[in-house]
Amino acid sequence: MSTHPPSRPRVAVHKFSSCDGCQLAFLNLGEDLLTLAARVDLVYFAEAGPLDVDTEVDIAFVEGSVSTPEDLERIQRIRAHSRVLVAIGACAVSGGIQGLRNSVDSASWVAQIYDHPAAIASLEHSTPIATHVPVDFELWGCPVTSTQVLGVVNALLLGVSPRDDADKVCTECKRQGHPCVLVTHGIPCMGPVTRTGCGALCPSLGRDCYGCFGPAENANTNALSVQFARLGLDAQAIARRFQSINSQAPVFRLAAERTRTAGDE
């Protein structure tokens, strides 16, 4: 009989072009992080210490978008060494706020900001992880929450598919009894087309949702755009509502393009 203890799942947490907020969802677990550390081997997590970048892992969590040639090369290596790859946060799943540069001449921006623009190595577009490699699960949010992360980890360790909560923020407002800021106060709110996950944080404080958790299931952006127009927003203002943190999510990108086109007619 073998006296060796069973091996623990090996986990890595990687950062690409991002603000580090989604990695903090791990560090902010508190005591749950200590429990997690006893269940898995964290073999790569630069934010926390381990730096074995090329080791084979069972689960790799990836924060951030692919924005540089180095990013492009590194995500291929990570995918090759990972059994399961999970993209976490708006940057990883939709290109993030930096995706706003995809529709402009970003080279001119760089030339205006940096004394030596030739030293800045970046790709033409900021793109989600799934644009370049197969992704097994996407966790939306800006940033994702510790509760979300722990739920995904627990599901994967149990060998089941994580739950993709695509309910709308409006549903969460109803659960918590928050007055609808769109109906009650006439505030343009993205809640009807945005997935929950934040606990309806902004509406709970009497302000509008601005779509940081990405498009919800069956997001009716046409109807919401009409409502925004009724509230006095012009075409450019409506388009900007969709062109924010998740501007490159297909549903939001098409809504912005459609609104701007209608406004130009």
List the helices and strands and how they pair.
Blueprint: E1 10-15, H1 21-27, H2 31-39, E2 41-45, E3 57-63, H3 69-80, E4 82-88, H4 90-94, H5 106-113, E5 137-139, H6 146-157, H7 169-176, H8 181-184, H9 201-204, H10 221-230, H11 235-242, H12 250-264
Parallel strand pairs: 1-2, 1-3, 3-4, 4-5
Helix pairs in contact: 1-6, 11-12
Report on this model:
With 265 residues, the chain is of the alpha/beta class. The protein folds into two domains: 10-157, NADH:ubiquinone oxidoreductase-like, 20kDa subunit (Rossmann fold, 3-Layer(aba) Sandwich), CATH 3.40.50.700; 169-264, no CATH class. The chain has twelve helices and five strands. A five-stranded parallel beta sheet has the order 2-1-3-4-5, sandwiched between helices. The model has no long low-confidence stretch (mean pLDDT 91).
Q: Uncertain runs with pLDDT below 50, 5 residues or more?
A: none
Element-by-element helix/strand order: EHHEEHEHHEHHHHHHH
Please list the strands of the largest sheet in the order they lie side by side.
2-1-3-4-5
- End-to-end distance: 77 Å
Average pLDDT for all residues? 91
Sum this structure up briefly:
The chain has helices spanning 21-27, 31-39, 69-80, 90-94, 106-113, 146-157, 169-176, 181-184, 201-204, 221-230, 235-242, 250-264; strands spanning 10-15, 41-45, 57-63, 82-88, 137-139. It is of the alpha/beta class and 265 residues long. Strands 2-1-3-4-5 form a 5-stranded parallel sheet, sandwiched between helices.
